[in-house]
Specification:
Length: 488
């Protein structure tokens, strides 16, 4: 079902104002320093868009219709809400067309959030009330993702206000189910591929490498979760009477797991890791420091794939994790051999390994090593597929140069995020190069009580995105000829 919204007349090309990039940045700074961005984000944080709470279905739609649609329409975008049978709420498609000879930039964000956990926030803080305290903005969605797409929308508006136009065609997709696994999202992108056609995706989610360092990442590691299970017999048996006579599933499963990765975490299944790290990826990661900050864990140099830097281990290689292991009754152990054991496992993988061969390769490996009795259970197989734009891509270089020009700082260029997100919908289904500019930081308490982002990060992000959108429109330097339009 398609629900059409008002299509503003302002979609035609406007008269170009003779203004400069620096004036656009001044406007962005005024927008932040004068409190306008805070007021806008406060309204959006106040809408409790908990997608995991079925009672919030009306709030998911209200967020789009009362906040996001009016903001896009004020910038001359045409907007429509599109329902999908798998989705919790409609998808919002917004588009501003400025000319068939201009490149098209697709943006993305999600307006849903995880549960507020209202009673667990610090005194004086409320998940649905944006609060500034000690140089930080607190509120559910400030980091993930209301704050991030609010900044990008404000930057688009600033460029339009300053220049009179963007200098490119803009499309924006907002979903309201990302925190529940983006139901229907990939199908929606397939069904609406023509309407989402663009030359490049520029979006924001996730954290910077460090709070003080602007970051660009170009994709995401893939992820697959699965259980390894040994179900030996119907019940437990006395460890004194039967110890040494019957197998112990917990012990057997521990050995099976140790065959998958070494005692230092090095993966032993060749099909799970890339054949090599591309030279452009190595160059991008050279000299980058992985640091969780004051409250983060310390990187262990002896853990993981030997011969790689910490940045290469997390951004250019695969990692295998045991997330949970259960046998018997851990809370109340008894003197009995458990009848079964289960380990919940996860593989994060980069571009290179065949995602459709991950579980078959595991099966072959277990069988070769004498663990044919270990069952593999996977409910949803590959949850995310690995994606990566080439760091040497001209669009990437433009983005990095633009952000460095605006901020005066070196950009951390990550070939892909260490985590996973549905970037494969853009990269594989829509065939786009993807550029992500995150506006959060590792200590943001995302998905936890006291979610926040330092105001300095948010301010710098607003200026950086204003400069980037200005440069994508080619600014006062004129239109660049180094990019070839690929969108229809």
């Amino acid at each position: 079902m398609l629900r059409r919204l008002a299509n503003p007349a302002g979609r035609s090309r406007t008269t170009i104002r003779i203004m400069t990039r620096s004036q656009a940045l001044d406007r962005a700074a005024e927008l932040f320093d004068g409190g306008t961005l805070f007021e806008t984000l406060a309204r959006r944080v106040a809408v409790p868009t908990e997608s995991q709470n079925l009672d919030r279905a009306g709030d998911l739609v209200a967020y789009l219709t009362t906040e996001i649609v009016p903001a896009f329409e004020a910038m001359g975008f045409g907007c429509r809400l599109v329902d999908h049978p798998e989705a919790l709420a409609p998808f919002l498609l917004a588009e501003r067309f400025e000319g068939a000879d201009r490149p098209t930039v697709l943006g993305y964000g999600h307006g849903d959030v995880v549960g507020g956990q209202d009673d667990r926030w610090s005194d004086g803080l409320d998940p649905w009330c944006l609060t500034e305290r000690n140089g930080r903005w607190f509120g559910r969605g400030v980091a993930d993702n209301k704050g991030q797409h609010t900044i990008n929308m404000a930057a688009l508006g600033t460029v339009i206000e300053t220049r009179g136009e963007l200098g490119f065609n803009a499309k924006y997709l907002i979903e309201m189910g990302e925190e529940t696994g983006s139901p229907g999202f990939h199908a929606f992108c397939r069904d609406h591929a023509d309407e989402l056609a663009a030359d490049i995706l520029v979006a924001s989610d996730g954290p910077r490498l460090r709070a003080e360092q602007p970051t660009v990442f170009l994709g995401a590691r893939g992820a697959i979760n699965f259980d390894l299970v040994i179900d030996a017999r119907a019940g437990a048996h006395h460890s004194g009477n039967w110890g040494g006579l019957i197998s112990n599933p917990a012990l057997q499963l521990a050995h099976a797991l140790s065959s998958i990765a070494s005692e230092r975490g090095e993966i032993r299944i060749a099909e799970w890791v890339p054949d090599e790290i591309p030279a452009s990826v190595r160059r991008a990661l050279e000299g980058l420091t992985v640091d969780g900050g004051e409250h983060g864990p310390v990187v262990e140099p002896a853990w993981g794939q030997p011969g790689l830097t910490p940045a290469e281990r997390v951004f250019a290689w695969s990692s295998f994790e045991i997330l949970a292991f259960e046998a018997g009754t851990p809370a109340k152990p008894v003197n009995a051999i458990p009848p079964r054991a289960r380990a919940h496992c996860q593989l994060r993988f980069v571009v290179g390994p065949d995602p459709d061969d991950i579980l078959p390769a595991l099966r072959r490996h277990l069988d070769r090593n004498g663990f044919g009795f270990v069952a593999i259970e996977a409910n949803d197989a590959v949850k995310f597929r690995a994606t990566r734009t080439d760091p040497d891509d001209p669009w990437v270089q433009l983005a990095v140069e633009s952000i460095e020009t605006t901020t005066g700082k070196s950009v951390a260029l990550l070939p892909n995020l260490g985590g996973s997100l549905p970037n494969d919908a853009f990269a594989d289904i829509l065939g786009l190069e993807t550029i992500w500019v995150p506006h959060s930081y590792p200590g943001c308490s995302q998905h936890a009580p006291n979610e926040h982002v330092p105001s300095a990060v948010l301010r710098e992000a607003l200026l950086a995105m204003t400069g980037l959108y200005w440069d994508l429109g080619m600014g006062e330097g004129g239109r660049s000829t180094r990019f070839v339009r690929r969108s229809g």
